[in-house]
Amino acid sequence: MNLKLIAFMTLLFIVAIPTVYAQISIGEKATQTLVEVTINSSNEVHVKHVIASSNTPTQVDLIDGVRTNLKVSDENGKEKQVGIIGDGRSIMIYPSQKDTIVEYDLANVLFLKNNMMIWNFTYPETTSFITPEEVDMVFANNRPVHLDEQRGIRCHGCQMILEYSINMPEIFENVKLDDKEFLVGVRTFAEINQFNFDQLTKSISFEVKGEKQFVTAIIPKELLPASYKVFLGDKKIPYEDYINNGTHVWLSIRPDNSGQISITSVEISNDTTTNGDTSKINTNQDNTSKSNVNQNIMTYILIGVIVSIGIGVMLIIMRKKKTTSTRTIKDNKTEKNQID
């Protein structure tokens, strides 16, 4: 009787483990052919996993957050029963000859900060994000991504801070240079004042009011060609030039605090005049680089020849010394034999 009681308690303990210990692994890791996160215009999140068919039970880890409306079905839409592991962070998919689709809603993952929706996202599988239709640009770990006609981005082995905004304000300023007019755009939630273009120094400047606000300047390349230097006051700050369509460059910065922003063009040329022809500049740099490489090769070859000659001379001298020594020994032996 006691043995039966012990066996029953042991079995009960084993069955209870998954519900009290979320990190335990019950089955093999599932093969996921798709992980898709869809965010709508109301910032509501829906997740979809597509699990490949398997002859053995498999475990699927779900994305962190408050999960609701969990639905599991086969590829034909027929609902399936699954096992809940731990506190619901993982589920058990039973053997199936068809792919399994797991769907649920997520809450409490997006929060608003500095006018941006932010998600500190971590998931080990490749994940596709479909963003709201109104969003044409997102930031992944502070790096801007222009969506253009695409609806989202894909993250591999994903650990990132995703940021986006809906309907970010955009202003446009007319700039004149050499009797030509150019349109410069600035996208930001920060307040922009005192926009100015200095023809002498070829620099754009404006005042930013707001901390940690993304600021994107859309600059015509004919106005400011080549690479750039960006300053907040007199301090140089980093930037990302993430789009170059041949006529315009999208330049993104995120100043820590309010202040005067200045953007200047950095052109590299041997001539005193510049005309924005970066292809010519690149050609000059390539020729110089090739010339330096050729000079280095010739230097190495010359050093190699000198070293080879030196080694050869040393070998000849050593061989002569050896021959002379051998002859001396032989002569000594001959003289000794004659005396004997």
Topology readout:
Blueprint: H1 2-20, E1 28-29, E2 32-39, E3 45-51, E4 58-61, E5 66-74, E6 83-85, E7 90-93, E8 100-107, E9 111-113, E10 116-123, E11 127-130, E12 137-140, E13 143-146, E14 152-155, E15 158-164, E16 170-177, E17 180-188, E18 191-198, E19 203-209, E20 215-220, E21 227-232, E22 235-236, E23 240-244, E24 248-253, E25 259-266, H2 278-339
Parallel strand pairs: 1-4, 2-11
Antiparallel strand pairs: 2-3, 3-8, 4-7, 5-8, 6-7, 9-10, 10-15, 11-14, 12-13, 12-15, 16-17, 17-20, 18-19, 19-25, 20-24, 21-22, 21-25, 23-24
Structure description:
By secondary structure, the protein is an alpha+beta fold. It folds into 2 domains: 18-164, Immunoglobulin-like, CATH 2.60.40.3650; 170-266, Immunoglobulin-like, CATH 2.60.40. The chain has helices spanning 2-20, 278-339, and strands at 28-29, 32-39, 45-51, 58-61, 66-74, 83-85, 90-93, 100-107, 111-113, 116-123, 127-130, 137-140, 143-146, 152-155, 158-164, 170-177, 180-188, 191-198, 203-209, 215-220, 227-232, 235-236, 240-244, 248-253, 259-266. The strands form 5 sheets. The protein has a 6-stranded mixed sheet with strand order 5-8-3-2-11-14, with no helix packed on it. The protein has a 5-stranded antiparallel sheet with strand order 9-10-15-12-13, with no helix packed on it. A 5-stranded antiparallel sheet has the order 16-17-20-24-23, with no helix packed on it. A hairpin with a 5-residue loop joins strand 2 (32-39) and strand 3. The longest helix is centred in the C-terminal third of the chain and has 62 residues, at 278-339. It starts with a helix and ends with a helix.
